[in-house]
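Morning run. Coffee first, then this:
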Amino acid sequence: MRVQLIRAWRERFDSEELELADGATVADALARTRLPRDGLAGCAVHGERVEQDAPLHDGDRLELLGPLLADPKDSRRRRARVQADRAGGR
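And here it is:
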């Protein structure tokens, strides 16, 4: 089966296609990839987070996830403050 691996950074991305045996898992793909795995925070298949023992299927897109650059809750609070400041300044 063929699986596409993707690793994205802020300014670029790398991708690789692997030919794996039927029944292969995320861990099997990680063991075979040439993509950098430093700072790997997890994996997703077609955008859904998965564990390394998850089975892969022909045509899957395995995304190698990096660490979060900002806490989503903090980002939302900042946006809410900016919106509140704008509304109050009208």
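The radius of gyration is 18 Å. Good start to the day.
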